[in-house]
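Box 3.1 A note on notation
Throughout this textbook, protein chains are presented in two layers. The first layer is the amino acid sequence; the second is a token string describing backbone geometry. Keep the layers aligned when reading.
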Amino acid sequence: MADPQPTPSPSGFPPLPAAGIRHQPVPYAERLALRDPASIDLVVVHCTETPSLADARDFGERLLYPDSGTGACGHYYIDLDGDIVMYVEPERVAHHVRGWNPRSIGIEIVNRGRWPHWYHSRHQTMDSPYTEAQITALLALLVLLRERFPTLRCIAGHEDLDTARIAASDDPTQTVWRKRDPGPMFPWPRVLAACGLERLQP
């Protein structure tokens, strides 16, 4: 059976070129607000802090905001083998980074991060490497996004934008970073040299 055709973009733009991108919208995707594509000027790089894409999908489908019937997820996910999956059309506002959602596109890369003890004070080392396939896929996706959204100017890590500290899960007298992704294993120099975007670190 032939692969189904991508769902047309809600903004009227043609869908991104196939290029291995699979469209698997989260169940609440159409409840997410539409936005003016010209308002999009930022890409935010995350890591899933899960061991697999399936675990990330499970979290992304959870309804965390009862008033809107939506949850938290990025627009695109990059698996360990470089496979790219779209959970939310980029013309919609996804909940992926506090305070920056209306202007940004979120890209989640599968990586264990601090899994499964994200906020344990003695489990803050992030030493899982990103695969070559993931970085190659990320750079290809950034090229496509810059062609689609010429207003894109900046790129940031989740850790650059969400700098809050919270009480450690094992010891409330200690604090840990709420977000540390994509973390120290992410090859920022390589990505910045190739993508043509400026790193945003407010």
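The radius of gyration is 17 Å. Strands lie at 21-23, 42-47, 76-78, 84-86, 104-109, 154-157, 165-167, 175-177, 198-199.
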